[in-house]
Design a protein that fits this description.
Helix content is about 0%, strand content about 40%. The protein has about 190 residues and is an all-beta fold. It has a single domain, classed as DNA gyrase/topoisomerase IV, subunit A, C-terminal (Neuraminidase, 6 Propeller). It is globular and about 45 Å long.
Length: about 190
């Protein structure tokens, strides 16, 4: 299980992969944690919590799938729920697809995606229109390139001038800086 938490904000959003569900819960629900922990989300058998983000309550999020889809929606599309609730559908997944990233949108930033064969691509978040929850989203990486690049394994929001660091399964660390080509409006991937 991979989860990221911060210590600021009022609300937190949860995403778990197999059903593409998202959940919004008041951070105050976690004010008194017991020694045995607290239930944060109701999961179905075989599913797992993949991401947790702390938000201010009025932000936008992106969900990215291994099959190359990205959905941007407003946090207010998801009503606050109790800790035991299972959440609501966040993105429509194709058969065999799964969620690989949940990120907060930052003004003027870009979405960087990385594939299992080491390809990476940066696209301005302005190219991902704000949509409603539980849609298919837009293409982050066209399906015709997936045979060459492999499925997406990660995505993150990066600001202008940020370097992108990737750790491989064999323990290599790769860093890349944005080049003028990375900032084009192309839907073509580039090798990392």
């Amino acid at each position: 299980m991979t989860a990221r938490f911060a210590t600021y904000g009022r609300l937190t959003s949860y995403e778990y992969d197999q059903l593409g569900r998202v959940k919004r819960i008041a951070i105050s629900e976690f004010a008194s944690v017991r020694a045995g922990g607290l239930i944060a989300i109701g999961l179905e058998p075989g599913d797992e919590l993949r991401f947790a983000l702390v938000t201010s309550g009025g932000q936008e999020l992106t969900i990215v799938t291994a099959g190359g889809q990205a959905l941007r929606f407003g946090e207010d599309e998801v009503r606050p729920m109790g800790r035991g609730a299972g959440g609501v559908n966040g993105i429509k997944l194709d058969e065999g697809d799964e969620v690989v990233a949940l990120n907060l949108v930052e003004p003027g930033a870009a979405l960087a995606v990385v594939s299992e064969k080491g390809w990476a691509k940066r696209t301005p978040l302005a190219e991902y229109p704000l949509q409603g929850r539980y849609g298919k989203g837009v293409v982050a990486l066209p399906a015709k390139y997936l045979a060459q690049t492999g499925k997406l394994v990660a995505a993150t929001v990066v600001a202008e001038g940020d370097d992108l660091g990737v750790a491989t399964s064999s323990g290599c660390l790769l860093y890349t800086s944005p080049s003028p080509r990375d900032r084009t409006r192309s839907r073509m991937p580039s090798s990392a």
